[in-house]
Design brief:
Length: 203
């Protein structure tokens, strides 16, 4: 639509009735509903015709319907564009969850927990040091699974260390509630559950 003649832009003859001009404008606005630039050109052409006919009317050369007084007061209006509703975001949408990876990591941390339980109950004096080895293995597994997700090694290490500190602190709170025979197994379960959930939910 590169024509400069407003009648040609709207596709109507210069002697067209005003109703024909309005219909052409409405049809073209609907046709170019997605093109704001073309809609502006159509509106400018329509306003140009309207102003031209108002001048002719003032000179007594044509008779324009009484309802037509100003360009902005027209019978037809631009069709309203519907705004799509924004999807509601739930808190769980921000979580990064993959069922297959969750299953694999669950098996890995379950195996490390079993190792922890065996080492913690093995031998007097050396059990604590050996269970610490299992925690270190769990920390390395946490770094590995986090790095697979976020692809930034130093962030994976920081998140894993933070999760390990929280896990150990939470596990140590159980000493006042559990007897020594089951304490170490439950502590290990808490530690590795926290580490597993960190790899599962952290984005």
């Amino acid at each position: 639509m590169s024509e400069s003649n407003p009648y040609r832009l709207l596709g109507v003859p210069e002697d067209a009735q005003f109703e024909e001009v309005q219909e052409a404008r409405a049809r073209l606005l609907a046709e170019y509903a997605a093109d704001d630039k073309q809609q502006q050109i159509i509106e400018m052409a329509y306003d140009s015709i309207l102003m031209q006919r108002l001048r002719l009317r003032a000179d007594g050369k044509i008779k324009v319907p009484e309802r037509i007084r100003y360009p902005e007061r027209t019978v037809f209006t631009r069709p309203a564009q519907q705004v799509p509703a924004r999807p509601q975001r739930r808190w769980w949408n921000s979580l990064s969850f993959n069922a297959s990876e969750a299953g694999i990591s669950a098996l890995v941390f379950a195996a490390i927990w079993l190792l922890y339980a065996v080492l913690a109950t093995a031998g007097q004096g050396g059990g604590e040091r050996e269970s610490g080895f299992a925690v270190a293995v769990g920390l390395l597994a946490t770094v590995y699974f986090l790095f697979r997700k976020i692809r930034v090694f130093w962030k994976a290490i920081l998140f894993a260390l933070g999760a390990a500190v929280v896990a150990v602190l939470a596990a140590n709170q159980l000493q006042a509630f559990l007897a020594p025979p089951v304490l170490e197994s439950v502590k290990g379960a808490v530690i590795f559950a926290v580490l597993w959930l960190t790899t599962l939910l952290l984005k």
